[in-house]
Amino acid sequence: MKGTVGELGEFGLIRELTSRLTTTPAVRIGPGDDAAVVAAPDRRVVASTDVLLENRHFRRDWSTAYDVGRKAAAQNLADIAAMGAVPTALLLGLVVPAELPASWPSELMDGLRDECQVAGAAVVGGDVVRGDTITIAITALGDLRNHDPVTRAGAQPGDVVAVTGWLGWSAAGYAVLSRGFRSPRAFVEAHRRPEPPYDAGPAAAGLGATAMCDVSDGLIADLGHIAEASKVRIDIKSGKVDVPSQMNDIGQAVGVDPLQWVLSGGEDHAIVATFPADVKLPARWKVIGEVLNPSALPQVTVDGASWTSKGGWDHFGDGSSDGFGGEIES
Predict the structure, then answer these.
(1) DSSP 83-144
(2) Coil, strand, or helix at residue 158?
(3) Mean pLDDT across 105-129
(4) 97 upstream amide cis, omega within 30 of 0
(5) % helix, strand, coil for the chain, step of 5
(6) Which residues pair with 91 in a beta bridge?
(7) Strand order from edge to edge, sheet including 233-236
(8) Distance from C-alpha of 164 to C-alpha of 159, rounded to nearest angstrom
(9) Is 0.85 surpassed by the pTM of this model?
(10) More confident residue, 216 or 330
(11) Are 276 and 158 in contact (CB under 8 A)?
(12) Cα(123)–Cα(117) distance, rounded to whole angstroms?
């Protein structure tokens, strides 16, 4: 598409964006009315929201608009799955400069649409506003399908801790990109377009998961949320956490212990959960630790000791995270 957003105009941009969308049976009324209508057979709606700011959460010289769309959708839809729900819909709030090429928001919408299709959801509406900095606000919705939500507060001493999905890949990809390289491609792509295991969340709920979250801020940070909410201690066994050989190679090249990326790097959006020890877990789940009685304050330890390396994302901290990201959990 030629021209700029300003030349296209607000209503022209809306028509262009909505023309690229697909739908699902859950969408009863989609874009084009005052509000969308999405079926909620469970009569409860799971909702999560996120904001992405250019040069804070993404860079246009590192990621295409399509990449940004896939990532923006993924990190929100993963939150829905981590509650044990099935993603159903996504809403977009978009702020763009008038001089931005009109092709950029169009390709962004393509990315949002395609990631929603992976999760079985659809973009159902939103709003566009002119502004100085590209800002993307996403609201994702989901359906519990008659299951109880799996929160962070249910972990019990004696439970095992298990994870499914990638850990540390996005952080390793960020390290590669920040040094001006574009390979190994698998890790760079993991940073640009995370691939959450959406179906694992509802499946974990069916298996009896006692607590769950997606790994957005880093494994230790996110398990820390579970430890605090559940008032327990969680111990990770470092020998049970996968560190791919190629990640070791990247670590050697940039002078970083790759275990730091695995334990502290965020934005992979893997699913981590606690389960009763007698639950037989499918092969996709890897047990990496255990839930214990708190010795003092709720905490996460590694091999019985505190993890002292910096990492994990905090928007209002010292910026020590090895990557863009972070969110205010809903």
Answers:
(1) TT-EEEEEEEEEEE-TTSBTHHHHHHHHHHHHHHHHHT-EEEEEEEEE-SS-EEEEEEEEE-
(2) coil
(3) 97
(4) no
(5) 30, 25, 45
(6) 125, 139
(7) 211-214, 271-275, 160-164, 286-292, 233-236, 299-302, 305-306
(8) 16
(9) yes
(10) 216
(11) yes
(12) 9
